[in-house]
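For the sake of transparency, this paper describes our internal protein records without simplification. Because each token names a local backbone shape, the row as a whole describes the fold. One such record is reproduced below, unchanged from the form in which we store it.
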Amino acid sequence: MGRKVNYPPAAKINARELRNSLLKDARDLDFLTNLKNTSFSRSLVEAKEVFGLAQYYLPIKAVSDGGLIYMLMSNSDGDTAKNGIVVLDAYSLEVVATKYGQFDTTTMADIIVDENYLYVLGRKVGEIKLYRINKYTLQIVDYFSETTLTGVAAAICFGATWIYLACYTAAGPRAIRKINRATMILDSSWGSVDTTLDITSLAAVGTTLYAGINSSPGQVIKINAQTMATLLTWTGGVGVNKVRAIELDGSYIYAILSAPFLPIYKITVSTMVTAASDSVGVAPWNDMAVMSQTDLDVFVFYTDSGNSGWWYQTAKASMSSTFADEVTNSYEPRQMIAVDTWQYFIGIAFGNIYHVRKVMVGVNI
């Protein structure tokens, strides 16, 4: 017997909510499993692929506000003139703006975006800078300067009215700075003298901050963002090493580790205990792996031993793979961005040029 569906008036329909509702119903009805037994087995529709000019140098990280993609560019030769931002239209992937030469840091590390500003993390000898940039003009309007722990500019993330910045020295303390987003002034810090705690990624929600650690075994540290004190720590088992990225969706935190064979852990945030796990099943080349998420799935973008870029999709509810496919040959991943039903794969191709591939994530058909 068919299911009765009461649809709201067309003017009140939210496209994203409707899509997610239909996807959930499909999974509830075991629709996806049935589809896998048919000839309709692909889970993506390729939409667009572009290669950037060599003048844009290398992508470091990228972020999107839905309409535009902002790519942070740099080079390994220390030339600050090659550090900048390239802005792409998220629909056409055409370059709509560029800005080079305004950063005085030689190494660029991370980029995040809010309603009005880009926040860019960079480093030079003796100083780490967190720049606030008007995302419409691409001009620097303010910055925070770190002059104590300047060896590694690791990661940044938002949390309420704050920005968290992870930094450390190679053989010295590790720290996360809590910075007022409005004033760009330091409020407080989390710190550790454990020199094995190399922070790779940050995520925050409400009054809680999480840090992914590139250690053996890998760790995810839960921190009280008000007091900046450690609350709990998740630790991988023997041989479960090197957290490469974390994603947070409220009830769970998802961590991708490089060993063994790119395991993905679903961790309950209240207890920091493993709820479920999956594994890509491939050893990544040079520990290269990045991650993104949608409401229903976690996506991993990695490079295999043959230097081919692949993506892997696992359902959050079951932590079981729903799709895996090769993105392209000779591809070093730098970022994967999830924007509604789209995934953007951003990496470096032959000739040290940027490569952006855009696909639509469907219902595994």
The longest strand covers residues 353-361. Residues 1-16, 22-43 have pLDDT under 50 and may be disordered.
